[in-house]
């Protein structure tokens, strides 16, 4: 005699699991942080050397970071960087001599 499947509510356990796997859930949106090479940032956790200042040395699909305390270089995937990012400590200077913060503020300022 075949064994009857275990029921949860009106459906089988197997159907409930398949339904859970096929449901599309909206991923949590983490905003992309606009960074430049030369920026110094603070991340969620400090480095084992005790410093919590990281200099951006590469920007792209992944972010290259250098610990200001010990000089260790690491790379983080963009998503991980955006998730761990906490604050800008210093912004890089662009070709015109403006920091990134002042350039952003000028873009947002209403025309006079």
Question: What do these coordinates show?
Answer:
This protein has a domain of 67 residues. 23% of the residues lie in helices and 27% in strands. The termini are far apart.
In brief, what are we looking at here?
The protein is an alpha+beta fold and about 110 residues long. The protein has three helices and seven strands, in the order ββαββββαβα. The longest helix is centred in the N-terminal third of the chain and has 10 residues, at about 15-20.
* SSE string, helices as H and strands as E: EEHEEEEHEH
- The total strand number stands at 7
**Cα shape:** elongated
The whole-number mean of residue pLDDT values reads 78
Spatial order of the strands forming the largest sheet: 6-5-4-3-7
Strand content: 25-35%
Distance between the termini: 85 Å
The residue fraction in helices comes out at 10-25%
Number of helices: 3
The secondary-structure class comes to alpha+beta
Low-confidence region ranges:
102-112
**How is the biggest beta sheet arranged?**
5 strands, antiparallel
